[in-house]
Amino acid sequence: MRDRLLLLCMLAMPVSLMAQAPTVAEAHKFIIKAEKQLFELSNKAQRAGWVQENFITDDTEGISADAQQEVLAATTDLALKATRFNGLKLPPVDARKFLLLKLSLTLPAPKNPAAQARLTKISVGLDSDYGKGKYCPPASNGDAPSGKCLSLNDLERTMASSRDPNEILAAWKGWHSIAPPMRQRYAEMVDLANVGARDLGFKDTGAMWRSKYDMPPDAFAAEMDRLWNQVRPLYDSLHTYVRYKLTEKYGKEVVGPGPGIPAHLLGNMWAQEWGNIYDIVAPPGPGPGYDLTALLRAKNLDAKGMVHYGERFFMSLGFPPLPNTFWERSLFLKPADRDVVCHASAWDVDGDQDLRVKMCIEITGEYFVTIHHELGHDFYDRAYSKQDPFFRDSANDGFHEAIGDTIALSVTPEYLKEIGLLDKVPGPEGDIGLLLHKALDKVAFLPFGLLIDQWRWKVFSGEIKPADYNKAWWELRAKYQSVTPPVERTEVDFDPGAKYHVASSTPYARYFLADILQFQFHRALCKEAGYKGPLHRCSIYANKAAGAKLATMLEMGVSRPWPEALEAISGEKQMDATAILDYFAPLKKFLDEENAKHAGR
Ligand code: X8Z
Ligand code: ZN
Of the candidates 444, 502, 18, 420, which has an alpha carbon nearest to the alpha carbon of residue 231? Predict the structure, then answer.
């Protein structure tokens, strides 16, 4: 009845006051204006975020949260207003920009300012708490604190190098003790973000995250499963082998009788990459013939020197050098006198040329790889900077994470010889060692890359309730990684929060995709370079044809659906794990033979 009255009123109104049907031209004007506004606001938030993560104080947290709230409020408002244009047939460029606008937030929020302020306060606060996290062990003679507190870098060094199970366990427990205070705020944040996601038309925040891949969210989840099933036998072979070797080293009392591996024994705080325990699992024989950490130290390299190696690799492909401001504004070393978020990150503060990294570099092979990873982000950022602001992003987030890692796959013995870090290229007799070392990082990572968002997707959907956060976490750790908690855990603990990306709400499926994609990119670029030998010996260093191919894809940004970007670099339209399987094929054979020898023991 009311509706009919309304209609009558409208008929009586002058045309100029009636809600007009939206036009394509209006939609264009709307999205161009939105693009400009959000670009400016997000640059402001980037700058505030940089200061907050580099100088963690209550004030910088407040400034960053305010700037983020402005982005959140404007984006929410624009995304809701944009629904007015739903159903219009727009030119493809504008249609894609509308889609990207709707998907652009990682943590959406309800429309009201108080809820938005609360959400940004929590999310910035959790990020800062992670950055400030320290473990202050009790003095050896009692329970009183010893006065010396350990940072994550300190504790990670112990995890990587100690072979004393008690010492490793203390470091593991110490770091995980930073997370319980995050638990309640985390649950509150999940609820707030879910309201925002539903307002935008998504089932929940997890469904929104899964909608960012140019396919329906359920299809994306199925795609992740498909890729995981492709690589799972390789992971199983590696896990079985490593478990056997760890039992040889530490004994059954430490490793335990079950099929899992206690999470503290794998050389990494989160058991996500296992390269640091290469010495424990190394096969007999010559091995890789070198140790990258030792080579870097023998050259007396400092942090900047290592970054220069990475920059020169990109330059050898035809990319211009990094701007001077990169060297002036980046953070390369952990400051002694203030709290920073040491978790490595790359920044593009003005969405154009103000590229930076923020890292607490140590002179190790592991950091050498991370440097290439971060530079990959910066070179990608610059390559797409000619695109319209909405398109200044990677084809999908897995692409962003894969570029620097692709380059790092070209850090072969041949490359190290060419740049003067290694005297003599070892022969193929050391290849199993070389491959095993790589697999400990790249193959071991796969289930970890998958499970973080399996946990978060279920948290966002409500399938995992706050009362089961930790239990569900360890169930997924067991299911995918076959890794077990080193000591009993309860719901007082909040072990997911001890991982940076959970505390900072950075989606994680991207790293799983990147682990698959980097091998696909590597295989394609090696082909472009005309390389014929085994993939693990291919380096595209100084190959301009490969560089041009890579640049073509990078420059596209997110202007087209990701399968087109993948096609531009590889000729393939599907993500495909056969490249990582090809790469490790000789190792798989070795692992299966070794495992057969020990079967049933
Ligand atoms: O977070 C990172 C990068 C920054 S985007 C250092 N990575 C993941 C992690 O550390 O958990 C790279 C590999 C996986
Ligand atoms: Zn990254």
Answer: 444
Q: How many angstroms does the Cα of residue 123 sit away from the middle of ligand 1?
A: 19
150-151 vs 355-358, strand pairing mode: unpaired
Show Cβ contacts of residue 100 under 8 Å, excluding neighbours closer than 6 positions: 390, 391, 393, 558
Considering the candidates 311, 374, 401, 528, report the single residue annotated as catalytic: 374
- Is 406 a pocket residue for ligand 1 (Cβ < 6 Å)? no
374 Cα to the center of ligand 2, angstroms: 6
Residue 541 CB-density burial (10 A; 0-12 exposed, 13-18 middle, 19+ buried): buried
Ligand 1 atom at minimal distance to the Cα of residue 370: 6
Token pair 């072990």: residue: 495
Tokens of 484: 């077990």
What is the C-alpha separation between 329 and 324, in angstroms, rounded? Answer: 9
Task: Please determine, for residue 601, whether its predicted confidence score (pLDDT) is greater than 80.
Answer: no
Name the band, by pLDDT with cuts 50, 70 and 90, for residue 418. very high
pLDDT bracket for residue 97 (50, 70, 90): very high
The SS3 of residue 357 is strand
Tokens matching residue 377: 């982000």
- Distance of alpha carbon 100 from alpha carbon 34, whole angstroms: 11
Assign 17 a pLDDT band (cuts: 50, 70, 90): very low
Pocket test for ligand 1, best of 266, 341, 370 (most atoms within 8 A of CB): 370
| Angle, helices 217-250/431-461, rounded to nearest 10 degrees | 130
User: So what's the pLDDT on residue 8?
Assistant: 40
Residue 109 to residue 418: CA distance in whole angstroms: 52
Nearest to 578 by CA among 523, 527, 525, 512: 523
Stretch 143-150: mean pLDDT, rounded?
A: 77
Pocket test for ligand 1, best of 130, 341, 343 (most atoms within 8 A of CB): 343
Rounded CA-CA distance 440/538 in Å is: 19
